[in-house]
Each structure stands twice: as C-alpha cells, then as structure tokens.
C-alpha cells in the first residue's frame, strides 16, 4: 500500500512589502508614543489603547472595501468628531465664544514650540486626535501606498517635533521609519500606483530629512544669538538651581547634580521680607512640571485678592542685570509702575512683556495671606471643582505605593492643614539636603520617597505636592527666590542661589498657602558657603556696593504664612503632635517595599543581568535597521544623525583637544541659529559679534589652547560645560 505525500501550497510572501508596511508602522509608533505619554500624564490610558486598536481594525476593514478618497472623507469626519469631543469636554466655566481667538492663537503657538501639555485638557485633546491619523496612515499602508502612509504618520510626528513634545530619539525613529518606507517601497514596486509613488518619493525623503534635522534644530537655544528676548533669560549657564527652576518660562524638568549661582540678580525695597515668587505649576508629568494655560496682558486693573484675611505689602524691585522674571510676594494685586509692562500668568503671578535690563525696575502691591492655623484647620474640603480637577491630577503611571505610604504617614491627621504639616515635617526630618544627586529614571516623587536619601528643593517640593494630591488635597509646585541678604531695614538683595521651590496648598475661603519641606539649615549653609567661595575667588558679580560681610545679619527665612507656635499639636487631648506624627511615621514607613509592593532591585543588592528584549522589539529593531540601510544613502540620514550625536556627546581626550571640540560645537550652533563665521574673521571676533557670554568665554579658552600656553583640565572642563549649556539650555542668557 503506497502512501501519497501531499505538500501544502507555498505561501508567497513579498518581504519588501512586509518591511515597507512595518516601516510605516515604525513611524506611527513614534507619534503614538508621544500621544501615549500625553495621555498618561493628563488623561486615561485605557481609552487611548482602545482608540488605537479600533482605528487599526477600521483601517484594515476600509482597506478591503473603499477607495482612498472615501477613506480620506472618513478621516476628515474623525477629525471633526474629535474636535467636537474636545470642545464639549471643556470645563463648564470655559466660554467658547470668548475663547475662540485664544484657541486659534494657541494652535499657532503650538506650531512654534508651545507644548501640548500646556493645554488644560491635554489628555482629551490627545484622545481626540489619535484616531484620524492612525486610521489613515494604516489604511494607506494596507493599500500599499507606503510613502503616502509614511507622510501622514511623519506629518503627525512633525507636529509634535514643533511643539517640543517629541524627543530626539523618538524623532529619529520616526525618520528611520520614513526612510524605510521609501527604501522598501522602491524594492516592493508592482502596485497599481507605482507612477504616483515614484513622483512623491523625493518629497517624502525630504520629509524624513526635515524630521531628523528638526531633532538637531530643537536643541538650539532660541535666545543664543544677539540680544533676544522672551523666555526667562539672564540666568547664567545651565547646571544651577536658578537655571533649572527659572530657566524656562512654563516648565521645570527635574535634574541631577546641580550648583548654586552667587551672582546678584535684584534688590527689593519692602516693609517685610518674604518669598519673592515667580510662578506656579499645576501639571506634574512624572519627571517635571508644566504650567497649563496662556498668559494675558495686564490691563492696569487690580487683580483678584486672596479670599481670606490678608495685608498689603508694596515692593520695588531693581534689576542688577538682564532678568526675564517678575518676582512678587504672593499674591500680587496691582503693578503700580514697570519699565517693561506686565503679563498675568494663569496662576495669577506676573511676567514682564520683555526682559528687564540692568537698573530697570518695577513696583508691585501684593496682598499677603495672613490666615492662622486655627482658620486653616477649620477650612474644610469644599474645594471648587476646577481646583480639584487641575490641582489633584496625577500621571496615570504613578505607583500605588506613593498613596499607600502617604496615607500611613498622615493617618492621624484629621484635616488637610494637619496633613500638609505632617508631610512637610516628615520630608524635612527624613530626607537630607544635597546638591549632588543622581537624577532618577522613573517617577521622581516615587524615587525620592522610596529610593533616594537626599536631594534639593525641587525634589522636596515635588514629592510633597504629589503626596498631598494622592490624598485629594489641591497642591501646586511654586518657584521664586528666598528673601536674600538684608542690606537695610527695608531692603534685600537676592542672588541666583536664592532660587528656590516650595509647595502651595489650597484651602477653601483662604486661598493658596505656602509650605516649605526643604530643610532650611543645610540649604542656607550651602548658600553661604557658595557666597564665601565666590568672594574668596574675587568674583565681581557676587556683591554690590550694599552687600558684603559685616553688613546686617542674614534675614531669617520666612516660614509658611502662619504662627509656628500654633502648629505643634493637632489636638492636645485626642492626637499626638504633628512632630510626633511625622516622627512616628518614620518608624513605620522607611523601608522600601514595606507597602507590600516590593522594593525593587535584587536581593542583597547583587548584580542583575539585563533582560533580553522581547521578540517583538527585536523584530521591530530589525525592520528599523533594514529600512535605514535601504534609505540612508538617498536620504542623507546618517550624516544628520551623526551631527545630532556629535552636538550632544563630546568624547574627552586631552585638555587642548577638548577645548577645541567644545568651541567647535558652540560655533556650529551659532552658525545654525545666526550666521557662519566669515572668511578672515577670528574666533573671538565671531563670538563677540553673534554669541553670548558663554560663547565669548569659550572663544578665549580656544585661543588660549591653540595659540597660547595651553589650558588646564579645569579650563577644559569649563569649556565643555559651556558647550553643553549652549546646546541644551533653553533658558540661558541671550
């Protein structure tokens, strides 16, 4: 009996088409990664995943049933529906007719660098925009219009490049996807629209190049060339607390190790000292803060006062140099006089229309809250709905253990005021102060609470605000300057090292009240040590003719707006004191993982081998690599990628070579933002003509390294630091 072997029919797989489709998918993944981040910070991730899955399923169905024109109409309908969904979910207090102009202005501002996270309903906006490009790009890929699909996905990613929400790595992945779609589209061929695709191929390669170049341009500071304006300028180089906290007009990103700037910034004449507040931030992203909303012009009318008791304090600020901030005691009521004019930020703080110059000044009257603890304890929890929505929101990926530990620490507190005091004291008692820290890779508040032992004000304030939000207490992150050095009975001088961050907590019928969890003693000691070092080094910028040793004693740092003698006990008869509550919490809540969530890491602190990426990631990486190889020569992508890497990462060798390389990076940025160095123009002449003080200092070091007696390692380190600042610091001086 013979047997007959039957072979299965061979499956003809067009590898080039599969890889071209996958390359379009890579570009889609790039912009979807940005949207997922926005939704995680400000929305509901499950809805996002559902929208993506539904869009892909609909794309597959439409690809089998309808022509591109019909699919385009469906996409337009999705955009219209998304816009309607966004509008109907705006807060009830939002007047659409009155806000139509500002909405158009916001749309234009986004194209010139306004982060989408600054939109009040950013999560809703991201959900509304997700279906349309996802469906259409996938539809085109399924219909073998690979380059058109890459154009839709790349254009969506390009929007996020312009808004600054797509980082360099994400942008580069998207560009490689475009290049892969083009390269494998060449290899695939055979579609009925080959002629159309051929006619568009060069345009789409240009798109890939534009997206890649945008990742390079995105690191060039806008204020680098010429006098410039805008932004929070005049704060010195990167790497200082001042540049970190006040270097960007509408966001703060937590950094690692940091230093203090001893440079004098301004003098204040006032009846009393305080925290010279610059602004507040409402949206926590997990690794920083963003201020939502747009500023409006100050029209001369009096601003709102705190709802509770207050007192009027007039202040006159005189600038010692260029300054893009407009500090004022909280809460500013009116601007009596200003050499620049003023804008009002969404949180009620002030910002100059243009940067102040040296010796320019302004006068502002503030209404300082004077509520005492008994009033704050009885304030209750009847918060306005918009305050709850805006100031208790947390990223969707915040670990549950943060809320669990906060609940245990504050378990004996019976009202929001005592809860805030307990958290404030617990952080001050259980975490040390240090400027030398490693920036955590995950959620900053979670890391500071469970993994870190010390940090500086940004970490303390961030963690306290997040802890309070987990308890449903409205809190925000505020920045500005501490009082500074007292030089007369009614006059103080603030330096860059006085830049500080703290927390403000909202109380019904009282408004926003300040809390400061950063240990004051170690912070003040570090500031004084930096001043002493600067004086011993002979730095001219550390003192004015009013400041110096022996003139007045340092002003005691103002505490929160309440009587410290009244905060030692919640209720003498029923609960322990706040200090005991904080210390008792320390006894039961200091071991990472005690919440039952695990402490992370390996047992015993041993070495842990890295995990092998899943097969899906390996396959995706292979598609990216092959697509890059197929399109790199035609697109010039490798050269752009090299320049992006070269700008950000400078290998070190000897001091002379390091100094030359640092200046070359600065000159490249200057040439991109302004003009290239002319033939016959010396390095110093060029830096003087188009650069700032960092460029001029780097030019002098370059000449010393090339034509002088050489440079030391310390000077080479300074040159590299200057180059890093020029490339990465957006808030530096113009």
TrEMBL record:
SUPFAM superfamilies: Cysteine proteinases. Residues 526-538 have a biased composition (Basic and acidic residues). Keywords: Membrane, Transmembrane, Transmembrane helix. Pfam families: DUF4129, Transglut_core. The keyword Metal-binding does not apply. Residues 518-604 are annotated as: Disordered. This is DUF3488 and DUF4129 domain-containing transglutaminase family protein. Residues 568-578 have a biased composition (Polar residues). Gene3D superfamilies: 3.10.620.30. InterPro entries: Bact_TGase-like (IPR052901), Papain-like_cys_pep_sf (IPR038765), TgpA-like_C (IPR025403), Transglutaminase-like (IPR002931). Residues 595-604 have a biased composition (Gly residues). It comes from the Archaea. Residues 449-519 form the Transglutaminase-like domain. The chain crosses the membrane at residues 16-35, 47-66, 73-94, 114-139, 146-164.
């Amino acid at each position: 009996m013979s047997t007959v072997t039957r072979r299965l029919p061979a499956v003809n797989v067009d590898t080039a088409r599969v890889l071209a489709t996958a390359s379009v998918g890579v570009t889609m993944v790039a912009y979807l990664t940005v949207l997922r981040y926005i939704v995680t910070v400000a929305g509901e991730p499950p809805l996002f995943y559902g929208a993506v899955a539904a869009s892909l399923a609909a794309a597959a169905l439409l690809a089998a049933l309808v022509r591109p024109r019909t699919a385009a109409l469906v996409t337009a309908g999705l955009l219209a529906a998304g816009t309607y969904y966004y509008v109907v979910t705006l807060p009830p207090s939002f007047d659409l007719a009155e806000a139509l102009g500002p909405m158009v202005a916001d749309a234009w501002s986004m194209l010139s660098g306004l982060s989408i996270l600054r939109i009040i309903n950013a999560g809703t906006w991201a959900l509304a925009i997700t279906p349309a490009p996802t469906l259409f790009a996938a539809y085109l890929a399924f219909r073998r219009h690979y380059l058109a699909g890459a154009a839709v996905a790349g254009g969506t990613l390009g929007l996020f490049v312009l808004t600054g929400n797509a980082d360099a790595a994400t942008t580069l992945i998207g560009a490689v996807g475009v290049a892969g779609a083009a390269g494998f589209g060449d290899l695939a061929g055979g579609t009925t629209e080959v002629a159309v695709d051929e006619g568009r191929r060069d345009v789409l390669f240009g798109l890939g190049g534009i997206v890649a170049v945008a990742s390079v341009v995105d690191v060039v500071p806008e204020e680098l060339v010429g006098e410039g304006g805008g932004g929070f300028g005049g704060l010195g180089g990167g790497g200082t607390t001042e540049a970190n906290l006040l270097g960007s007009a509408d966001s703060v990103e937590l950094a690692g190790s940091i230093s203090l700037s001893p440079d004098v910034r301004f003098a204040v004449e006032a009846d009393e000292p305080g925290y010279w507040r610059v602004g507040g931030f409402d949206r926590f992203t997990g690794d920083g803060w963003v201020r939502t909303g747009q500023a409006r012009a100050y029209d001369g009318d009096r601003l709102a006062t705190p709802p509770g008791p207050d007192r009027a304090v007039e202040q006159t600020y005189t600038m010692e140099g260029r300054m893009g901030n407009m500090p004022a005691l909280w809460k500013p009521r009116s601007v009596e006089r200003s050499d620049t004019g003023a804008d009002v930020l969404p949180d009620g703080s002030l910002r100059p229309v243009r940067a102040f110059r040296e010796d320019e000044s302004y006068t502002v009257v503030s209404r300082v809250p004077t509520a005492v603890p008994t009033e704050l304890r009885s304030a209750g929890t009847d918060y306005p709905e918009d305050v709850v929505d805006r100031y208790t929101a947390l990223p969707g990926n915040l670990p549950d253990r943060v809320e669990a530990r906060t609940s245990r620490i504050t378990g004996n507190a019976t009202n929001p005021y005592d809860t805030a005091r307990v958290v404030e004291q617990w952080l001050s008692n259980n975490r040390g102060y240090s400027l030398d820290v490693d920036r955590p890779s995950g959620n900053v508040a979670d890391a500071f609470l469970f993994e870190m032992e010390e940090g500086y004000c940004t970490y303390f304030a961030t963690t306290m605000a997040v802890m309070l939000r987990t308890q449903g207490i409205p809190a925000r992150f505020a920045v500005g300057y501490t009082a500074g050095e007292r030089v007369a009975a009614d006059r103080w001088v603030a330096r860059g090292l006085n830049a500080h961050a703290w927390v403000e907590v909202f109380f019904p019928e009282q408004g926003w009240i300040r809390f400061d969890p950063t240990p004051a003693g170690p912070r003040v000691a570090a500031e004084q040590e930096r001043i002493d070092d600067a004086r011993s080094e002979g730095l001219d910028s550390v003192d004015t003719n009013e400041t110096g040793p022996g003139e007045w004693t340092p002003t005691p740092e103002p505490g929160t707006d309440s009587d410290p003698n009244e905060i030692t006990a919640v209720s003498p008869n029923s609960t322990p004191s706040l200090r005991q509550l904080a210390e008792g919490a320390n006894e039961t809540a200091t071991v990472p993982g005690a919440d039952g969530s695990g402490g992370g890491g390996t047992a015993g602190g041993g070495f842990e081998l890295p995990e092998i990426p899943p097969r899906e990631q390996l396959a995706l990486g292979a598609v990216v690599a092959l697509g890059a190889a197929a399109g790199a020569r035609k697109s010039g992508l490798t050269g752009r990628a090299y320049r992006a890497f070269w700008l950000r990462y400078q290998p070190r060798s000897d001091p002379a070579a390091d100094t030359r390389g640092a200046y070359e990076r600065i000159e490249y940025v200057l040439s991109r933002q302004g003009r290239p160095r002319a033939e016959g123009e010396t390095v110093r002449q060029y830096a003087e003509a188009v650069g700032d003080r960092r460029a001029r200092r780097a030019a002098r070091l370059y000449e010393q390294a090339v034509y002088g007696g050489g440079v030391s390692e310390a000077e080479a380190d300074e040159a590299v630091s200057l180059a890093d600042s020029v490339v990465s610091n957006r808030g530096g001086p113009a």
